[in-house]
Amino acid sequence: MKLFLAGCGWHKVWIKNKFFNFYRLQTFYHISKDEAEIIHKYKGFLLDSGAFSMFGGVKVDVKKYVEKYIDFINKYKVEHFFELDIYEIIGVKETEELRKYIEKKTKRKTIPVWHIYLGVDYYKKLCKEYNFIAIGASGKHDSGWTRKNPEKLKKLVQYANSKKVRVHGLGYTNHDGLKEIPFYSVDSTSWLSGNRFGAVYEFKNNKMNKHTKPDGMRVKTHLTAENNFNEWVKYQTYLDNI
User: How far is residue 181's CA from residue 176's CA, in Å, rounded to a whole number?
Assistant: First the structure.
């Protein structure tokens, strides 16, 4: 299983150290020019459309955004990228039309994203049409469902696997679930929590351990971030081999 480190910032740390032997997911909405120019150096790279930002109240001209997304994909020859996942904003039909348009202009298949509210029949339809899909596992609709229904989630992924379809768990970071559910890949922003909350991660005994900052104490953000990055890369390597 491939674990992609998602989220913004800190890319200059690995650029400076010339270390790219890890899996990286970044959004088009936030990617900087200097990171865009090194995406082919990563062990693996996934480009998210950044459509999630549209849910945060950011006003975006969808047509212009799609054209810029297409131009970026073509310019940097991005191999794996997600569709514009905005079913809740413009509806299923319009989202499908955008997906087909992006695929026509890039001459590549997108990674479509399935959500529980789209229904199982739609999931099976995606499995029939694509060999790489994603299941939304974060957000108000998806995270609660995936937490409460691990067996159903497992069966969905197993169904896709039986059809030779790879499945990415978007925002899926349940450590116990990663051992049980046969995702092809997942992504996580948890490695950045040290920067936000002063948490220190340690990968030990095949398990990711989180040490919270004691009350009243401060941590050096830069050193904590580097430590957490290194520990999560160890976790990537472990998951790669199971």
Answer: 9
